[in-house]
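Work Package 3 (structural annotation) set out to generate three-dimensional models for the target panel prioritized at the project kickoff. During this period the team completed the workflow that converts sequence records into discrete structure tokens, so that structures can be stored uniformly alongside our sequence database. As a representative example, we reproduce one entry of 248 residues exactly as it appears in the project archive.
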Amino acid sequence: MLYDQDRLEGLSLKQDGWKYDAYRQFVMKLSDSTYLFPCIPATIGFKRGHFRYAFISEPRSDQAASELARLLEIFGEEARNFGKYTSLVLFCETPKKLADSYTVEKYREVFWRLLLKVRALDKKDWPEHLPADPHDPVWEYCFGKEQYFMYCATPAHRLRQSRYFPYFMLAITPRWVLVEFNSSGEAAVHMKSKIRERILRYDAVGIHSDLNTYGNEDNFEWKQYFLGDDSAPSPSRCPFADYYLNKN
């Protein structure tokens, strides 16, 4: 089920437990007026109520993959009605044992395994215009023939607070949202500069070297989906490469 912010305001700690807590934590992170969240378009989408939210099962489970696949089907069909800053924000049930024991690298494995499972459940073929090889700089994650930028935050991130969240969380943004944002020319360039300034104040480590711009020859979107908690580059091989090879 997709929720808008009005429906989520009706959640209660007694009845909804972790779901209530996850949403409240998200609200505090995005609305903090002192410790400004770096992604300015995300804060705008939140304030305007363009986001849609969902809760899914523990991210290592097959059930979580099935739930996410269904949510992406719904979101893909309806997203253009939600506003030009929309994203699908997904909170995953994250047992305390998982939150306390998993490292950033283990969460990276969970993230990619989940995306691979979801991709296998897609009822539509990969878009004809888009390379299926993630090592092509134009590649991007797709579902239902829609292109999406994936953002993952975990309980294990500490230095990179822009990627920290007490629950395993995904924010999924349609490519058309980002295209529209970048169409503003100088305003978009100025905002990107402001975002980088905020990252330097928000995180205890510098701007990650993998952050880049879609379409650049030296850019690989998949590397930006899940950033490490330090400045080390992302792995050189994308987990989706094996999926690509099996399909060709």
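The first helix runs from residue 5 to 8.
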